[in-house]
Structure formats: C-alpha cells, structure tokens
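Technical appendix A lists one of the benchmark inputs used to test multi-chain prediction within the project. The record comprises two sequence entries:
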Amino acid sequence: MAEQPKTRLYVDSPLAEGQTVGLDHERAHFLRHVLRLDRGDPVAVFNGRDGEWLALIDGFGKGWCSLTVEAQRRPQDTVPDLWLVFAPLKKGRIDFVAEKATEMGVSRLCPVFTRRTDPNRVNMDRLRANAVEAAEQCERLTVPELADPVPLARALADWPEGRTLYLCAEAGIARPIAEAMRSAGSSPAALLVGPEGGFDQSELDEIAKLPFVVPVGLGPRILRADTAVVAALACWQSLAGDWTAGGGDTRPPFRSPADPAA
Amino acid sequence: MAEQPKTRLYVDSPLAEGQTVGLDHERAHFLRHVLRLDRGDPVAVFNGRDGEWLALIDGFGKGWCSLTVEAQRRPQDTVPDLWLVFAPLKKGRIDFVAEKATEMGVSRLCPVFTRRTDPNRVNMDRLRANAVEAAEQCERLTVPELADPVPLARALADWPEGRTLYLCAEAGIARPIAEAMRSAGSSPAALLVGPEGGFDQSELDEIAKLPFVVPVGLGPRILRADTAVVAALACWQSLAGDWTAGGGDTRPPFRSPADPAA
C-alpha cells in the first residue's frame, strides 16, 4: 500500500475503481513541480458525488497528468442544508467569504445585490475557485453550489417555502442569535449578511417584516460583513447543524495526512 | 451642534471636557488628506478608560493635528473577560486574527509558540496596530491587551486559577463546543487555537489532560486556524458572553455615522 496522499483534489470525473482521471495543466504543474510528486504517488480525489478515493499518478505529459482510481477512502456524505445569502464584498474580503463559508459547511452560496452593495458584479469563476480550494483543504466531500447573483429583492420574492432566513441585523429589534437558533432544529435555513456599511434602513425594515425572516443580533460591536458571516455560521452549525453530534467525538472523522492517526 | 463625526480614533491622552489631544503625523495626514476634514470638524475619540468623546479639530500643523475634547458621547464600558491564546500565523492570517478577535470582543490577545508554530517571532507593533484599527472600526471602547509572546508550555504552567481554557481540538475526545459553552456562565475564560497544521499529537494530549482545560470540537471539517478563532469566539460570545442579552435589542447601542438613527 502506498503512503498517505500529500494532497486532495476536487475533480469532475466519475470516480470508481480502475477509472482514469485526467488533470489539467495547472493541477499537473502543482503535483509535479510544487509537491514534487512522481508516477505511482498517491493523491486523494473527490467529485462531490462518489466519496473520496485514493488515486495513483499514472504519468505526466506536456500540460497534463493522469491518475488511476484505486480504492474508496470515504463514502459520500453531505453538509447540512444551509445557504449563505450575502452581498458581494471587495476582492480579498469576498475571497475570504467563499473560503470561510466553505469550511463552515455552507451548502449553497447566494450572492445578492443590496441597495448599498459596492461591487455591482461578481466574478463567479473566482468565487468557485476559492470554494473548490477551501473544500479540498477542509476535507469536505462537496463544493458549495453557487447561485447566480440576483438583486436581493428578487431572491426574497422567489424565496422557497419552509426555509428560515436569519437576518444578521445591525440595527432594529432582533433576537440574540443563540436564542433564535437554539430552537431551530434541522429544518432548511439560510443566513443573510448585508454589505459593508450595512443595509439601507428602509431595506432592513422591509426584510425584517417578511414571514420567513428571523432578525438576529450579533452583539454590541459592529462586525465587518466577513466577520459576521463566520460568526453567524458558527452559531448555526454549533446549535442546529453538524457540530452538535453528541457522544464525544465530533472532530473530523478522517484526518489529514499530517495526522499520524489518519 | 456639529454634524456626526466621520471617524473614530483611539488615543492615549486623558479625555475630559476642554482637554487638548495631539495627534501624530499619520493621523493628522489621515484626517486632513484622506477624510479631508478641516478646523472645527468633529472626530470621535476614546482611550479605553474615559468612554467615547466628541472632539473638534483645532488646527493642523506640519505633521500634527490638535483636537479639543467637547462632550462625552458614551460612558466607558468593557468587554467580557475572554482571552484568546493563539499560535502566531503567517502575515495576513495573523493580521486577520487580530482584527477579528478585536471585533469579536476579546479582552486579551496571548500569542504562544507551540511545537509546530511556524513563525518564531511576533511583530507586536503590527499586532497592536491591527487591534487598534479594528477597535476604532467596530466601536469598541477598549483595545484588547496584548500579552508578551511566550512558549505555550510556560503559559500553561503559569495559568491563573479559575479561568477555563477551551481547547479547540482537531483530534481526540472533545465536547461539542455549544454543549461545553452553554454551561459556562460568565466566569473568566480563554480559547486556545493551535497553529496551521494543528498541534503536535503528544502536545495536544498533554494539554487536554490539564484540570482547567475543556477540549471542544468544531465539527467534522478541518478549519483553518483563523477560521477556528472566529468560530469559537462566536460560540462563546453567543452562549456565555455579551451577545446573550435578552429583551430584544442586543445590537450596537450606538451606531456608526452611516446610520441615520445614530
């Protein structure tokens, strides 16, 4: 048996024993010249559908690399049904949101334009690349879905029945976030975090009135939008999501190669 | 009465009515050339002891600016007694930790060197500058204290009686974080977050055995150290800290100038 894989890659191809997986230029370069891997070296791969598999490097060519899939390492699992609805932030901060939301187990990223949203477009390729990289790194077996960016009003008009939307409200009446989420159970949920500088006041008032919206408060300090994202996700995951499993061990069931126990 | 202050500055000077406050070159430049403020314009100031005050610009000189303190805007308050004990991360990630921990209401930042800590020194001036900037921005009335960086073993050997240390454990037996913190009450607490790549296994085992340590788990995904900081702080603040206040409004009692209600 080969040693532990030094890396973990998200791929599009179906994964099953004996399958061949081709990697593009960028990944081939990464394996060969950054990690200095060679023919026969192991790599972990996942595609969001078939679990995680051990694959061995078949060979490198000019701008490609091929792998042969050997054995399944983990069966497919999923993350809780939690959407993050967020106003796009400036470069850097939005990369951060994609990375952190993925680590925090969001199932779907929904960029929305609010009245005060600063960037008026979203680089979806970049958003996706950040989410993929974070999924590889945090040992998720899925990459969050990306919804097309739409105006917030439209996202709210089309809101699916039965999904609670927790509004991270920086003003107005709201419930303390832990109190609101403690009683949430495992029903579908979404968090809404506004733009830097906050929602427009009348916009905030309109959102708060919607029947599926629960305004929640994140304490007495003004949080940056990107901080609020991680903080609100942590509250939900720890109180209603997949950090709640009792019985001792809730840490990653399958550790990275750096862990001798893996 | 002058209009709302466009900025909020942390200063060292005592603050009381009629007091003069001098600002250094960097701040004078910021007020004059970035914000384009002039004589008579208002600025909010705080020093961590005397609350927040309205001050008016007296005048600018070559590399300085002086303010006259007018009236108190908010009485002094404090943050909960919560320390963050963390292994220094690379530049960028450690800036982020200082910013986020300040927003999240940490009272003391304690950098510690673990066995696998990558940077072997900490730029304390930079850490402090990031904490000050975040305090100004998030409307805190204090800047977190900075402890001198020490080896983790020494921080643990000198641990103060009565302070619980929540160990963010990426392996081994741990309680789900919300379950552990729900019963915490308002006693002094600290969170310990390890370096990128995690603690050394034997180090983790040793820490977990200490009588004041409660190992907590942050779910089934591998979080980056900087993500774990914000996530664990959010859990503590929302369950045992100052995000718990009932009675409707737990949001910032005093809003930034962008808010028309401020």
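The two ends of chain A are 14 Å apart (CA to CA). Chain A has seven helices and 13 strands. Comparable benchmark entries are summarised in Table A2.
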